[in-house]
Write a structure and sequence with these properties.
By secondary structure, the protein is mainly alpha-helical. The protein has one domain: MetI-like fold. It contains 13 helices and 2 strands. It has a two-stranded antiparallel ribbon. A hairpin with an 8-residue loop joins strand 1 and strand 2. The longest helix is centred in the N-terminal third of the chain and has 34 residues, at 61-94. 27% of the residues are buried.
């Protein structure tokens, strides 16, 4: 092996060490723990094989309920959040002179602390002194007032709205960057051919933005399904588990000294996310070929 090749390996060695230390080793350690029953305190672990996975798939209805909760919030993010982000991106793409101001404004929510945002919105939603109910009463809509985060019928939707408000800025920035890569010559050619604004959007903007849409969808699903801090600050998974998501279920298993079971939950959750990402990537490649 030449000295040049050896020196090249030395350049990537730090990255390989970091990746191995913080990703590969923890993954194998998590898999090892998932095959054991361990309370996190005792120095010895009891080997149980696939019992943790069996319990998870066959007996833990609360786990799959948390997956549905995360899926519901993700559905809001994929629709409401990303549609708002696309509308704002289209508006800022046209308003080039003042667009930079709005880029800063719209990107403020994503960079705020999730804990802080969760606590602020928890106050807004409060049934006794929350500002939302105060506004409803002042508008003559007092019959709609509710303790939003304490009611099973409204808590999850209330969280989904807050999550969409906080997260739309990421999609906005990515979509705006994608819009600005579309050659203006395509719009000019479509305009010369007699296409109105809607036809230009359908026949030029959407086809050119498909790869960006796919990327935004992947990031939205991965980010939303792993949501944790915002929900923890607002409800902690309550009321009665109606806003629990997978990461909170994993945390609760650890609190109950079920570290092996928590590792099994984490592995299954990771496999589900990887599968979803793989399917979306395959769909993206298929659309590009079309």
């Amino acid at each position: 092996m030449s000295s040049k090749r050896i020196s090249n390996y030395f350049f990537i060695l730090p990255a390989v060490l970091i990746f191995s230390t913080f990703y590969i080793y923890p993954f194998f350690k998590t898999f090892q723990l998932s095959l054991h029953s361990w309370d996190g305190i005792q120095p010895t672990m009891q080997f149980v094989g696939l019992a943790n996975f069996k319990d998870l798939f066959l007996d833990d209805k609360a786990w799959w309920s948390s997956m549905l909760n995360a899926g519901y919030i993700t559905l809001w993010a994929l629709t409401f959040q990303n549609i708002i982000a696309l509308i704002l991106a289209l508006a800022c793409d046209k308003a080039l002179r003042i667009g930079s101001i709005y880029r800063v404004i719209f990107f403020i929510p994503p960079v705020l602390s999730e804990i802080v945002v969760g606590l602020v919105w928890k106050w807004i939603y409060n049934g006794d002194y929350g500002i939302l109910n105060h506004w409803l009463v002042s508008l003559g809509l007092g019959s709609l007032a509710s303790d939003w985060l304490a009611q099973p019928s409204t808590a999850l939707t209330a969280i989904a709205i807050v999550h969409s408000w906080k997260g739309f800025g990421w999609a906005f920035i990515i979509l705006l960057a994608g819009l600005q890569t579309i050659p203006t010559q395509l719009y000019e050619a479509a305009y010369v051919d007699g296409a109105n604004a809607w036809r230009r959007f359908v026949n030029v903007t959407i086809p050119m933005m498909v790869p960006v849409f796919i990327m935004v969808m992947i990031l939205t699903i991965l980010g939303t399904m792993q949501g944790f801090a915002l929900i923890l600050a607002m409800t902690g998974g309550g009321p009665a588990g109606h806003t629990e998501v997978p990461v909170i279920r994993i945390l609760n298993s650890m609190k109950n000294s079920q570290f092996g079971y928590a590792c099994a939950q984490a592995l299954i959750f990771g496999m589900i996310l990887v599968t979803i990402s793989f399917i979306q990537i395959r769909v993206s490649k298929f659309l590009k070929q079309e």
